[in-house]
């Protein structure tokens, strides 16, 4: 006859069941590991889609009154750490960072550029610093025409310096983007597009900005193409999105080698990257990228 009492047997059976469940979970057989308990709504791109669904969709507002300084001085030290925002982002996104003796100024480093997939050696200098630029995921001019025009100066300054809206990228790619949204420009690195548009959605959701119909549809198409198991927070493991615009297609800002792209849709007065480049407004007015010598060019009406 066993020496174990009838009261002890249920306790041992319970302990055995718990042990078996833990072993199965460690082996990847539990409901969470298999995905059975997660469901489509738990995937990261589904979260971005849910945020997108809550954004207001409306036509772009006026660019009247827009200037870069309406967002405060460029690269203000908003976190009061003694370093300006540009150096904070460079230090965050570059590797092998070397700083000046002031403890802030980034003198050199290496960037694995998310927009192109290239590795860029950064070296601070009058002729070299522009190789790596800090991009606003949601461009400031885009924010202006999708809600920021009516903000307080302090809120605009926070957006302009928010690390969640900033990323160090290839300079020419940043200039080709200008102030375009996802309907007319996407990073040529297809594997980064999920993360790119998901970041834009998060920023717009956090600040209460709206999206245009074309912007909404482009972002939704990309996120739906990411796959239920992919992560918009990193490169898309499913590979190129067949439904996403080709980076060499007209309007993406990255023309293919030897090809002549159709004029992109641009916004009068917004920054542009390549002097003498041509574009058109949504209403069909011919525009040219130009400006006084020594100043950053803008889209202006072509003569």
Write the layout of secondary structure elements.
Layout: H1 8-26, H2 31-34, H3 44-54, H4 85-93, E1 95-99, E2 106-112, E3 119-123, E4 132-136, H5 140-144, H6 153-160, E5 166-170, H7 171-177, H8 193-207, H9 213-225, E6 278-280, E7 286-290, E8 298-301
Antiparallel strand pairs: 1-2, 2-3, 4-5, 6-7, 7-8
Helix pairs in contact: 3-8, 3-9
Produce a short descriptive summary.
The protein is an alpha+beta fold and 303 residues long.
List keywords for this structure.
single chain, 303 residues, alpha+beta, three-stranded antiparallel beta sheet, 9 helices, 30% helix, globular, GmrSD restriction endonucleases C-terminal domain-containing protein, signal, GmrSD_C
What's the average pLDDT? Answer: 78
Largest sheet: 3 strands, antiparallel
Q: What count of structural domains?
A: 2
Sheet with the most strands: spatial strand order: 1-2-3
Distance between the termini: 105 Å
Order of helices and strands: HHHHEEEEHHEHHHEEE
Counting DSSP E segments of at least 2 residues, the number of strands comes to 8
Structural class: alpha+beta
